[in-house]
Amino acid sequence: MITIYSARKIITMNPSNPEATHVAVRDGKILGAGSLEELVGWGEHELNETFADKIIMPGLVEGHSHAMEGTLWKYTYVGYFDRMDPHGKVWEGAKNIDAVLSRLKQSDAALDDPDAPLPGWSLDPIYFDNQRVNRHDLDKVSTTRPVGLLHASGHIMNVNSKALELAGLLKSGINNPGVPLGDDGLPTGELKGPDVMTPVGLHVGFDRDMLACDEAGLIDFAKLCVRCGVTTATDLAARLPEEAVAMMSEVTARQNFPARIVPLRFHHGVTPQELIDHVLKLKKQSSDRLRLGMIKVVVDGSIQGFSARLRWPGYYNGAPNGLWYISPEQLRDIINMSLENDIHIHTHTNGDEATELVLDCVEEGLRKHPSRDHRFTLQHCQMADSAQFRRMAKLGLCVNLFANHHFYWGDEHYNLTIGPERALRMNACATALENGVPMAIHSDAPITPLGPLFTAWCAVNRLTASGRTQGEEEKIDVDEALYAITLGAAYTLKLDGEVGSIETGKRADFAILEDDPEEIGGDKLKDVRVWGTVQDGRIFCAADL
Amino acid sequence: MNATPTPVTILGGYLGAGKTTLVNHLLRNANGKRLAILVNEFGALPIDADLIEAQEDDIISLSGGCVCCSYGNDLIMAMVDMSKMNPRPDHIILEASGVALPGAIAGSLSLLNDYRIDGIVVLADAETVRERASDKYMADTVQRQLADADLIVLNKTDLVSVEDLSALKDWLHDLVPDCRLVESQQARVPPAIILDGLETELDGHAADKPHQIDRFETVQLDLPDRIDPKTLIEQILVRDPPPLRAKGFCRTLSGELATIQITGKRWEIGKAVREVVPGVVVISAKEPGALE
Questions:
Q1: Which of A235, A442, B168, B260 shows its CA 20 to 30 Å from the CA of B155?
Q2: Distance (Å, rounded) from C-alpha B16 to C-alpha B129?
Q3: Which residues in chain B are contacts of A312 at CB distance < 8 A?
């Protein structure tokens, strides 16, 4: 059966046919886009005018997100910015500590068991003039139950006295840079770094594997995808044990599951050979809506956590250089074996030294195993300079830049972590494009909210949270940004032949918009309203989820 | 949490320094101790095949009641899990990944009340460590690993000339001015230097490897009736040759029985849980001249 959808305008991203009014769909795939006249020739059809007053774009592609965004919503949201949950409710941002506490008190009141933990997430005290939330503040919420707030960055947690007590840390004499002490010699309740957070996090209700996504979380994640026009999203680092793969296969195959999920196998904890063997096996378990068989390698830490590896002169505030999460030897092995076995790798590098190491290893690997179209992708790659972008282009690497980061932490980077000059060139979208590096932009949800149109707005305007434009020269235009969140991201996943544009033969994956992103203006891109999506020809209205 | 904290030795050092070899050596000479070995990944089997009794997903059962677990991407969680093991192991050997900073691991573990850090032992490959320590990417990581060490095991000394070894030691002392060194070949370090336990006798397994033991001396100290443990430790630390390991009991000025533990640079005073005769054993490397 053929369905022809009419629209106010169809932005196809197909350069030979950039705009259309109708699109014909059969068996979840696109027969063609054009005028109604051009499409009726396909034969008997049904004209669907649901979108007659809407804009249709290719379904948006999020090239760096984590399905745990769906899982986190079962905890109390205490972020500074308004944020939409999977059910469409917009949670107002908590603008000061009192607002955070009052939000937590509401959650506290809703819990019957006085001992049950109360976890919250997305706290960001940098917007409270860096006034920290200490255990005494959180004791006002409860003294009987452990309360813990995960920061938006994911690198710090604040807990109440009960949580410290349960973890055996409400004592003097602790000597650990990750556990600041108050005047009384006891921990303030702030815990910096995953190794310090983990033992206490257990007691406040944060599950053991924070990156793991359960069934409910995966479904909620997919709902968030619909709400922001995403039809293909990565789950960028998972261990993917058998039971998780079985769950994901079953859930994504359901007739009402609205997104294509691309999980990447995290490198850590297994040898390169085990990793390759596992991924080759996973590849065979791929299905239409669950694309397996790629690797994510984490090379360094984060810039705001001072664990990213920087080249000289290092951190602006003089902090020691960050941490390697993999040795060059192992990285080389994984790259070589992946090239041999035609496996696609995405690497996490935040600092420019980590990026340099990947460039060196890929260059060396390609000499041994020439590969014309490997599309290995540097994820985040926030500090790359133009020389590194030139190398990426030569080596056939893609880049997925963290445009959202610029908005949320740009001020922090300018003032504290890497200083003004390098902060200006962070996430250098314009330089990437100028040097011909295939580029995507991302949210790293849940670190920042899923929403490619917001991400596009970030890349176009380069505003920081304080309202400064940071890096005028690295702005890109609206067309480039829209390309980055569709075909650009699809290219980094080797899915650009299937999704990312509206043209004959491709998947009927659409973002259905109330406003025209080409007309609304670059400064309002984030305000484009999303009606929902069409995924594999199935209609998902955000309001009906 | 009420039980005595389990001692943990963190084994650091860059890839190829001999961490796995040392682990196997300790397992073979555990002398009845039930060791738990924690490794980042099982990899090309970290444990000699003849020691293995059974293997499941993340845990390998070894002869003598020892186990080996892989901690994958979450070391702290593995440690939390291990604290629930029944019976608890006598001593945990944590083999850090080649790029990890062992001091940071120790800092994190110090927050877990079920454990006490017995020592940070960092292996250095005598043949390659200087090159590693000036590598474009790894220099600071390797240097920080060495600086974190309570005790540096300078391994594979048989692969370098006497002159080079001497120059290497000078270099190490320049890099880490207060470092404590023990030399080894094939990571054969007397287990008494690394494993906790006051009952461990240095000569307990001397019979088969006298040439190893010859290089070390064990001294039983005569203690005054009462002594401030901190003072005692200070006295031990300045002994010549410098102590690699010391352990024992002393009676404090107020008459309580205290335990003292020294691993290279690290020392710790604890409360004795049972009544024993005070006494301290100190293990040191003999003068270089005595090595031959």
A1: B260
A2: 10
A3: none
Query: DSSP label at A489?
Result: H
CA geometry: angle A313, A319, A320, nearest 5 deg: 75
Chain B residue closest in CA terms to A168: B113
The distance of A317 to chain B (nearest Cα, Å) reads 18
Would the pLDDT of B2 be above 70? Answer: no
Choose among A179, A202, A269: nearest Cβ to B73: A269
For residue A412, which of A432, A429, A426, A428 has the smallest C-alpha distance?
A: A426
Partner-chain contact A168 B99, CB within 8 Å: no
Chain B residue with Cα closest to A171 = B111
Mutate to test the interface with A, among B137, B140, B145 (most CBs of A within 10 A): B137
Answer whether B111 sits within 8 Å of A169, measured CB to CB: yes
Report the alpha-carbon distance of residue B68 to residue B59 in Å, rounded.
Answer: 6
Q: pLDDT digits over A466-494, tens only?
A: 999 999 999 999 999 999 999 999 999 99
Q: Give residue-wise pLDDT tens across range B152-186.
A: 999 999 999 999 999 999 999 999 998 999 999 99
The highest-level CATH class for domain A76-204 is alpha beta
CB-CB: which of B41, B71, B111 is closest to A176? B111
Complex ipTM, two decimals?
Answer: 0.89
Residues B217 and B184 in one domain: no
- Taking a C-beta distance cutoff of 8 angstroms, is the pair A200, A169 a contact? yes
**Parallel/antiparallel/unpaired status of strands A55-58 and A510-513:** antiparallel
Return d(Cα A447, Cα A379) in angstroms, integer.
14
Chain B CB contacts of A270 below 8 Å: 41, 72
Helices A194-204 and B75-82 sit at what angle, rounded to 10 degrees? 50
Question: Residues A356, A384: contact at Cβ < 8 Å?
Answer: no
Option in B15, B76, B105 nearest A327 (CB)? B15
Could you count the other beta carbons within 10 Å of the beta carbon of residue A256? 9
Listed residues B197, B224, B255: the one ending a domain: B197
Please state which CATH number belongs to domain A273-499: 3.20.20.140
Which residues in A lie closer than 8 A to residue B73 (C-beta atoms)?
A: 239, 266, 268-269
Q: Do A178 and B1 touch (CB under 8 A)?
A: no
CB A303 within 8 A of CB A382: yes
Per-domain residue ranges of chain A: 76-204, 273-499
Provide the domain limits for residue B14: 6-197
